[in-house]
Amino acid sequence: MRNLRERARELVSRERFSDAEARRLGPGAVPHLVEIFETASGDLANRQRRRTLHALGVLGTEEAVDFLISTAENDAVEGWLRQAAVRSLGPAEQPGAVEYLTSLLDDPDLVNRDNAAMALGRSGDPRAVRALERAADSDPDERIRHRVRRSLAERDRG
Q1: What is the domain count for the chain?
Q2: Are residues 119 and 62 part of one domain?
Q3: How many CB atoms lie within 10 A of CB 107?
Q4: 154 falls in which pLDDT band (50, 70, 90)?
Q5: pTM of the entire structure?
Q6: At what angle do helices 95-104 and 126-138 cross, to 10 degrees?
Q7: Which one of 66, 88, 110 terminates a domain?
Q8: Helix/strand/coil (H/E/C) assignment for every residue in the chain
Q9: How far is the CA of 75 from the CAs of 15, 18, 100, in angstroms?
Q10: 47, 64, 88: which is the final residue of a domain?
Q11: How far apart are alpha carbons 100 and 21 in whole angstroms?
């Protein structure tokens, strides 16, 4: 039987995987996924990093959320990967994820607010709904208000 590190590496090497497959790795895979993110190299490294961020968000442990937030705030990480880290926080059930995403709804950067709204729409935390409802009425940019309304509608259908 393959060890957990090998299973985590195989999962994020695939073009697609389900959230259920990521959850089956379990919380013990978080350190291995962090290692994969930090050591990825070669032509497919950025895709593998993006998929690793998604798997960490699905696992949603405190350690995974801390890594995702630190990645989102790390100026040395490419911008699109930082935004992927923000979006990956959506399914995480840790309180820190919703608090961080809610704080981004007030960020001056439109892209941060957009990604936070998208991620909060995927959150199962009731605080996410309250934050989205507030942003739907108060964000200064119509595009963000539209994203927020769409995120709320997707939650209702969800």
Answers
A1: 2
A2: no
A3: 14
A4: confident
A5: 0.92
A6: 0
A7: 88
A8: CCCHHHHHHHHHHCCCCCHHHHHHHCHHHHHHHHHHHHHCCCCCHHHHHHHHHHHHHHHCCHHHHHHHHHHHCCCCCCHHHHHHHHHHCCCCCCHHHHHHHHHHCCCCCHHHHHHHHHHHHCCCCHHHHHHHHHHHHHCCCHHHHHHHHHHHHHHHHC
A9: 27, 30, 17
A10: 88
A11: 26
Same-domain check for residues 78 and 13: yes
Residue 156 sits in the same domain as residue 106: yes
Question: The domain containing residue 146 runs over which residues?
Answer: 95-158
Q: Which two tokens stand for residue 136?
A: 């739907």
- At 33-58, the pLDDT tens digits run 999 999 998 888 999 999 999 999 99
